[in-house]
Amino acid sequence: MPKDGELVKKVLPIGQPLIMSYKNYCIPFAIMANVPESRSWILNRFLQLYTRSEIKDDYHWLQFYLIHDCLTDDYTPNPWLEIHMTDPAWFTKDSATTFIRTRIDEGRYVEVNCDQYYLSHTHAYAQRHRYSNLLIHGFDDKEQVYHVLDFTFTTTRQFQSMTIPYSSLILHIDDVPTRPLKVIKLREDAHTELHISLIHQLLSDYLHSHNTSTRLAMLPHTYEQAVFGLEVYTKFEEYIQALIAHQSYINILPFQILFDHKKCVYELVQLLHQANHFTNPSAGNQLVKDAESLMRTALAFRNTKLKFLRKQDKSIFGDMLNMIPEMKERDKLLCDAILSALRLDT
């Protein structure tokens, strides 16, 4: 219990993350959303897609290409976040509470991997022991709860703030500690600007389905079997056909990733237009309209998949297959138009 004069409650602010597909994106971006200027860092980098693995092998098969494996804990290239790792093996349940409470009191967020067996908002609750990460952004000693950011898996499936009891946060499974805790500080005084040549490179790679990893020969993995850029649409066709044939399992993640990509491109086009990075205002106006239209189509594509999850009507898959060729062509035309209108001398 807190001593006299100590805080009994503190909740750090979080915002709406730009990308909503994976928690490894949502968590840092929810923190960075407190500083709108950090948006340019995200938009500069989240422009290339690739198939991380084969559809049959991993439901994370579609990802943003970020050089390093985007499901690792490596946020260090991000100038907006200061990350420190702590081994959970050092903590008992009581000492973990004290540690987390102290960090929040200092204005630092704590990301933990914990056992979902004890978390009632997850599918693993009281069923199986499973590691998963969430962000702790507040505490309340009176109510004995943490304020956490996670997906509401068993209800709305939204990424949102909720509370969990102190007693539900378990950092060890069968006495084996989970992955390191990450103490995260937002650097509000950081500064980043749009990197126009990088934008041009990544959008060009996307348009021509170029393997971006080959630009750096010293990288340990070159993803020879991966599909990049516009060619990921062929993987969506393959995936939907596999679903029709009962050869794969239903997963919303790749459809959310595609929508997230179109959202990033739309916001990037808006930012480029506002900063006068296009050759003329009329071209910028049209690009904003086209990018918004494609983003809405990608949203409809994702929502059609959600419709199948509700109705289980296989004719919906035919509708989705029919959407893909036109969406791919519009995506191609948009990227080509952005690259043609982009001023490289700014």
What does this structure look like?
This protein folds into two domains: 9-34 and 81-186, no CATH class; 196-341. It is 39% helix and 16% strand. Strand 6 (131-140) and strand 7 (145-151) form a beta hairpin. The strands form three sheets. Strands 1, 4, 5, 6, 7, 8 and 11 form a seven-stranded antiparallel beta sheet that branches. It is α+β, with helices and mostly antiparallel strands. It contains eight helices and eleven strands.
Please outline what is shown here.
With 346 residues, this protein is an alpha+beta fold. The chain is built from 8 helices and 11 strands.
Question: Which stretches of 5+ consecutive residues score pLDDT under 50?
Answer: none
Query: Number of folding domains?
Result: 2
Inertia-based shape: globular
Tally of helical runs: 8
The chain-level mean pLDDT equals 90
> How many strands?
11
Helix coverage percent: 25-40%
Helix/strand order: EHHEEEHEEEEEEEHHHHH
Strand content: 15-25%
Distance between the termini: 57 Å
The whole-angstrom Rg is 22 Å
Helix vs. strand class: alpha+beta
Describe the sheet with the most strands: 7 strands, antiparallel
Question: Which short descriptors sum up this protein?
Answer:
346 residues, alpha+beta, seven-stranded antiparallel sheet, two-stranded antiparallel ribbon, 8 helices, 39% helix, globular
